[in-house]
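Please review the protein record below. Tell me whether the encoded fold seems credible here:
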Amino acid sequence: MTTTLNFDPALAKHVETIYATPDVAATRIAVFRAAGPRSKETALDIGCGPGYLTRELAIAVGPRGKVVGVDVSEPMLGLARQRCDGLVQVRFETADALKLPVEGGSADVACIVQVYCYVKELDQALAELHRALRPGARAVILDSDFSGIVWESKDRERMRRVLHAYDGHVAWPDLPRILPRRLHNAGFEITRCETVPFVTIAYHPNSYVYGLAKFIHAFVVKNAGFPTDEADAWLAEFDVLEEERAFFFSLDRFMFTVRCN
């Protein structure tokens, strides 16, 4: 699988911190409710990251169910294993979305949160998801359209350039727009599509946008060749906007609930 990020231990820990914020917890609740895991079911958490959702799925399916958490990053899986310690119904595998470590037609439900945007071989990944699910099984796919970010800045041209550079961190920055056709071609029926937004007027460490801003800063400097001084000024502005009570951020995530035909 061709992906655009290497989740080393430091980045994995940073992602874990972001996922612990109330903003991301609310998204996780929305995905969990849409998935509707039931006792004794087999669930897949594809791109499980630090294992927050994996744990919630495991508790829902109970000790007679099964949950398989899949990720390409060993540091992420290490965090997930710690989080799910003692849950006998959970197993974790180092694997990617193109070759899931399960038998065909064995899963009742799958959750794929902010994963497919990184996978260049999107059609292949959707075909593999279809293989893993039994007929009539359901999946919840959530991804962002990064072109829809609304982020206040007194230097809007600099903001535009930073966000354009950040587009390089994913293979599909506008993934939700193309998913309906791709899902249909892969043999899925979309039963529901809804928006799960991040909207905030506050900038503080216990918010999604705070961690995202630092993530973007590191990426554009290290991977996109963005001038460090400009990136520093971009990041520093948010503390100023917060002090002035002028901060604003919004990003829409789109959640597709689908049935496997």
Q: What stands out?
A: Strands lie at 42-46, 66-71, 90-94, 107-113, 133-144, 150-151, 188-200, 249-260.
